[in-house]
Design brief:
By secondary structure, the protein is of the alpha+beta class. The chain has a single domain, classed as Nuclear Transport Factor 2, Chain: A. About 30% of the residues lie in helices and about 35% in strands. The protein contains 4 helices and 6 strands. Strand 3 and strand 4 form a beta hairpin.
Length: about 160
């Protein structure tokens, strides 16, 4: 549950930018698999998570999605590049590096939008990233074909 020391004094009920940066930096590390257990209390039971791959509703489904990602990755690291907060919305710009069992480390660049419920917990999370473009950039022959295809079809 959100405690008074975690709250942004200028926005009652909201997590501070410092606390958000600390929580996300602790979740993703360089010495092993990611662990989200410490951030789950900050999510509302009716939270909605969406990214380029999936949409899940409810804290139970969100926790299951996090477990699936943990099982797929050897390790995961996130660098928060910038973090902005306005009213009940936080925007983060980040670089996430994923290590899989048989593939080289893969950096993915993206952004996250967090929307907070009036009780201070996260009610919506939307992650934006180009998963395939970032992955294919790490595969020399695929990179050129993928970029040519994207340019030809989408300008």
């Amino acid at each position: 549950m959100v405690t008074s020391s975690d709250i942004d004094e200028t926005r009652p009920g909201m997590l501070s930018k410092e606390k958000i940066r600390d929580l996300w930096s602790t979740t993703y590390n360089t010495d092993g698999k990611p662990d989200w257990s410490h951030i789950f209390p900050y999510y509302h039971p009716d939270c909605v998570f969406q990214d380029s791959i999936q949409r899940v509703e409810g804290i139970t489904e969100f926790q299951a999605m996090c477990t699936r990602l943990t099982n797929r990755c050897k390790k995961l690291h996130m660098e928060i590049i910038s973090l902005l907060q306005d009213q009940n919305v936080v925007l983060m710009d980040w670089k996430m590096t994923m290590s899989f069992k048989r593939f080289p480390d893969t950096p993915i660049y993206g952004a996250t939008k967090l929307v907070f419920h009036e009780d201070g917990r996260i009610i919506e999370q939307r992650d934006y990233f180009d998963l395939w473009g970032d992955i294919f950039n790490g595969i020399p022959k695929f990179r050129k074909m993928y970029r040519n295809f994207m340019h030809k079809k989408f300008g």
